[in-house]
Amino acid sequence: MRLTRENSLWLAPTALFALAVPVVTVIPRLAPEGPIGSPWAAVGLLAAATLAALHRPLGVGGLGLGTIALLPAFVHLGVAPAALMALLATLAAELVRRAVDRRRQAPLPERRRPLRVVAAAAVAGLGALAAGLVWVAADGDDPAGAADLRLVVPLVALAGLLPAVVFEVVARRSLREEGVARILPALLPHLIDLPGYLLGALLLLVERRAGAALAVAWLAGAVALAVEAARQELAAAAAGRRLAESERLSQVGAALASGTPALERVALSIHGECRAILGFSWFQLELDVPDLGRLSFAAAETGDLVEGEPAPPPMPPALPGFHRREPWRRIERDLTADGERLATLRLWCDPRRVEERSVTLLDGLLPSMAASVRGAYLDREARVDRLTGAATRRLFETRLAESFAACRDEGRSLALVVADLDHFKRINDGWGHPVGDQALRAVGRVLVAPSRGRELCARWGGEEFVLLFEDTAGEVALEIAERLRRRIEAIELEADGDRVPLSMSFGVAAFPELAVRSGDELLAVADAALYAAKRLGRNLALLDLGRGQLRTGSGRVVAIDESIAPPDAPVFFA
Q1: What CATH number does the domain containing 445 carry?
Q2: What is the dihedral of CA 99, 101, 106, 109, to 10 degrees?
Q3: Are 411 and 351 contained in the same domain?
Q4: Other beta carbons within 10 Å of 340
Q5: Distance CA 40, CA 21 (A)
Q6: Which of 334, 361, 383 is the last residue of a domain?
Q7: Does residue 105 share a domain with residue 58?
Q8: pLDDT by residue (tens digit) across 190-218?
Q9: Secondary structure of 513-547 in the HEC alphabet?
């Protein structure tokens, strides 16, 4: 292993712990029964510390709630054995959490290197050692009353936190050069150790007042609660990572719903044409996109074209030799077609390097640039619904056929979601069609948001939308639909001072989970699930599982019959 500055930092607590433990082990008061203490008590407390340390709600890889076993370990084992127990419990908890993640077959989060894991365990051991020294110095091992514990335990807990806090500060200052404003929030997760010390003190009180048997039972109950909390935490984290991974995979490729790539290609083309005939330092193309509004692309002289505003300096840069510095010469031209302004071109040029002949050539290219922009707008208009920003039905039908054929041939998953705005006629009749259009625009913004890469959201007609997700299983598509349903339900839309309530029903179907033969059949199944959601009360997301079974977003499975399914809906089996 190469000894770098970073590796030296991780090795430091491990070396310090390895030097300190043998020293304190030979002190009778710190290790009255040897380096391990009573074997049965050592095994029991180690197991309790390990299981309690599995719960890491704030993500810190130390002992955490495992500190619940430290005070009993000081009393029954000694300080040195307790410090060794803290180190082993931290390592064991890390290994168990990794094993659980692998068993769940979830995409694993970022993993720390073994050297960092050992360093974190050593810091936990040093914390236990510091807490134990304070415990012994305060005569905390003497069977005292509750008043003495109330005085001793806060000092013990603060001493136990000190090594972790010092190491966190040193690591962040040394490796990342972070300031106080960023270091302080990073220290807060270490406070999870404090409840463990308090629970350990309560355990000692139970033992002193009610006996060892009740104390063991109390410890087992507390550890069981910590294990259940850890199980829930790990399950939620794994589900979140699976969903994030699915979304990340589905975003690979070109964006299809918003039409931005086509506009960006036009901006790149115009940028290249201008670069070929005119030397400029800064570039901007400001587009007036129908139904989307103002969109700006900018680039510096040596930079790539990006979406955003240009930020040129006040004056052009100095040139070699003696030159009079003058402000930028800003060349601004409108790109028009049939008297309509489509875009504005702006170039920031150094007046000492501009030739008038180049400006004349640029003006001659303006009609072709305007034609390119006009073509991009027409292409977008053919593919994007102007009211909602979703794709058009025609584009969706083409994409559905292509995606189903590709997923069938390559053995990939394909999920469809059909969504319908609840009681839309009531909105139009009660508040008017302009408010109905506002509702559709607001819903469209929510539904189009995840539509990138191999995802697509289209307006099917009226208040009905369809979403296509490649490489996405039905359960994941149901989770996305349920999340969208809650977001739509939370939309704040007002008319005449009244809140307009919005809700949406969703039907979900996926291939190859259902043995459909075409994209149209998969769409029919999703539409039937939407019909069932409407009949079951609306504002509901349902996934067709096959064999007449539907799953709600909350995980409940419901059965459908002929009274719920639409008359002409086909029946498919998983």
Answers
A1: 3.30.70.270
A2: -120
A3: no
A4: 10
A5: 21
A6: 383
A7: yes
A8: 777 888 888 888 888 888 888 888 888 88
A9: CCCCCCHHHHHHHHHHHHHHHHHCCCCCEEEEEEC
State how far the Cα of 76 lies from the Cα of 88, in Å rounded to an integer.
18
- State residue 106 phi and psi, 5-degree precision: -95, 155
Residue 199 domain-assigned? yes
- Domain end position, chosen among 224, 249, 274: 249
Number of separate domains in the chain: 3
Between the alpha carbon of residue 117 and those of residues 54, 87, 103, the distances in Å are 14, 10, 21
Whether 367 and 402 share a structural domain? no
260: nearest Cα among 152, 370, 379: 379
343: domain range? 260-315+325-383
Per the CB < 8 A criterion, the answer to whether 495 and 431 are in contact is: yes
Q: Do 531 and 413 share a structural domain? A: yes
Residue pLDDT, tens place only, 434-452: 898 889 988 888 888 655 4
Q: What is the 3-state secondary structure (H, E, C) of 467-508?
A: EEEECCCHHHHHHHHHHHHHHHHCCCCEECCEECCCCEEEEE
Query: 535 with 451, same domain?
Result: yes
Distance of CA 192 to the CA centre of its chain: 23
Residue 555 pairs with which residues in a beta bridge?
none
User: Residue 226's closest CA among 50, 399, 107?
Assistant: 50
Q: Are residues 115 and 243 in the same domain?
A: yes
What per-residue confidence (pLDDT) applies to 75?
Answer: 85
Segments in the chain below pLDDT 50: 1, 105-111, 140-141, 143-147, 245-260, 452-453, 564, 567, 570-574
